[in-house]
DNA sequence: TTATGTTAGTACGATATCGTATTAAGTAGA
DNA sequence: TCTACTTAATACGATATCGTACTAACATAA
């Protein structure tokens, strides 16, 4: 790879890192005390999987260690946003499912954050976001594929 | 803002979040035990500011609480990657400067990560990266501006 | 100069992250 | 059905994050 390309890759990662941090804050401003953007992501993930997922699957999907996922799940359960039920297919395992209260939280936070985003400079922002959405999705898919090979 | 646009904003944040997490891991694989991608970012930042910056400025630049920055700086200093000197302009304050050892670490980690990125399978989509670099920079600038208003 | 308010950094404590080791359950071969 | 191996989740401990409260230094006005 050429020097210029390498430089661009790092610059890309830097921009992406800053934006990610910003979006995390944007979301967390509209979430209760102990709930983070990762919890929000978990709820969104589960809302698309009504049958529930195992902690293992969730840890993989969010690329965090299993022990961290154990802890996050406990917090969500303690607050009533999800419920943990035994996994009928495997007695070692469990299934985490979103509750109505969790769905409620998800929608509320979504709506409020959308409101916040709308008060910036929507026309410009929206145009630029739409401009990089496809390339970003492709890059992410690529990184996912690379990660599956290396672990 | 329209429903579609809102949806795209969230999708954008999701993609960006995943990519950011990936790049963090990519870098941290090439850093010593206690050093994270945020420390790496700090060193890069300081390398462009040979006169040093105050913890306050660093906390603002990286959008972390002051107390978190205090801790990060301590780790970097304990490992010899930066040095802390009194701020001649303000006796309450300090200046953090990168040391030669810190510059060394920065370059090594940069080189190794570049190597990793270059040899990735499947190969990185450099074209797509370059395609969204400009829009991303503009989005980031816009978010920076919004943040300055709200704190 | 004193009084009042602001700012830089940190001590401290609550909680979060995550690596290592452990337990319980599943699986496969002899 | 043993035995050995693998896997899901967690207990535990070290370290990190970050909110609150504090101290010391600065600034401003009277």
Q: Can you put this structure into words, describing what you see?
A:
Two copies of one chain form a homodimer. In chain A, strand 1 (82-86) and strand 2 form a beta hairpin. Chain A has a two-stranded antiparallel sheet with strand order 1-2. Chain A is built from six helices and two strands; from the N terminus they run H-H-H-H-E-E-H-H. Chain A has 151 residues and is mainly α. The structure holds a DNA duplex (30 and 30 nucleotides).
SSE blueprint:
2 copies of one chain form a homodimer.
Chain A: H1 3-28, H2 37-47, H3 55-62, H4 66-78, E1 82-86, E2 94-98, H5 100-118, H6 122-150
Helix pairs in contact in A: 2-5, 3-4
Chain A binds a DNA duplex (30 and 30 nucleotides) through helix 4.
Tell me briefly what this model is.
The first copy, chain A, is mostly helical. Chain A is built from six helices and two strands; from the N terminus they run H-H-H-H-E-E-H-H. The first copy, chain A, has a two-stranded antiparallel ribbon with strand order 1-2.
Number of strands of chain A: 2
CA gyration radius of chain A, whole angstroms = 18 Å
Q: Which chains have the largest interface?
A: A-B, 55 and 53 residues
Shape of chain A: globular
- Give the helices and strands of chain A as they follow along the chain: HHHHEEHH
Report the helical percentage of chain A. over 70%
Describe the sheet with the most strands of chain A. Answer: 2 strands, antiparallel
- Spatial arrangement of strands, main beta sheet of chain A: 1-2
* Distance, first to last CA of chain A: 24 Å
- Given as residue ranges, the uncertain stretches of chain A (5+ residues, pLDDT < 50) are none
Tell me the quaternary state: homodimer
Mean pLDDT of chain A: 94
Beta content of chain A: 5-15%
- The total count of helices of chain A amounts to 6
